[in-house]
């Protein structure tokens, strides 16, 4: 089994901005600027899809929404939506920077392509960033490139 996904937003993949690139595996760092010993380097774990804040976000696949929380601990402005694929339960997905817009207690099943969330404005946290939602996907707990699972190019 495998998984095909729909882009959660159809405005393309985030290119390079002041904070990095939206491609899978792009270099990232976190930690105190100016204190190089404190900076941690890592690779971007997902793909960033450009949004207009406030727009509908589409469910990437037929999925169970299992959890809704915060993308950043202690910051309730940005949501984190956890999904499990219905067609292939080996695949789990996380979508950041969107507010869940469905009713009822979780888990809730949402169809592929259904508008189920609203894009938030990441510029409130990172000046100069291209507004986007972040999608990361794991198969049996191992990160995969969401771009390789897209049914159509964006
Ligand atoms: Zn990202």
Characterization of this structure:
0% of the residues lie in helices and 42% in strands. It is mainly β and 154 residues long. It has one domain: Glucose Permease (Domain IIA) (Distorted Sandwich), CATH 2.70.70.10. The strands form three sheets. Strands 3, 5, 6, 7, 9, 11 and 12 form a seven-stranded antiparallel sheet that branches. It has a three-stranded antiparallel sheet with strand order 4-10-8, with no helix packed on it. Strand 6 and strand 7 (91-96) form a beta hairpin. It is globular. The two termini are 23 Å apart. The mean pLDDT is 94. It binds zinc ion.
Please summarize the sheet with the most strands. Answer: 7 strands, antiparallel
Count the beta strands. Answer: 12
Low-confidence stretches: none
Along the chain, the helix and strand elements come as EEEEEEEEEEEE
Summarize the structure.
The chain has 154 residues and is mainly beta. It has strands spanning 27-30, 40-43, 47-50, 56-58, 63-72, 75-85, 91-96, 98-100, 108-110, 115-119, 132-139, 142-144. It is built from no helices and twelve strands.
Features:
Glucose Permease (Domain IIA); 154 residues; three-stranded antiparallel sheet; 42% strand; binds zinc ion; mainly beta
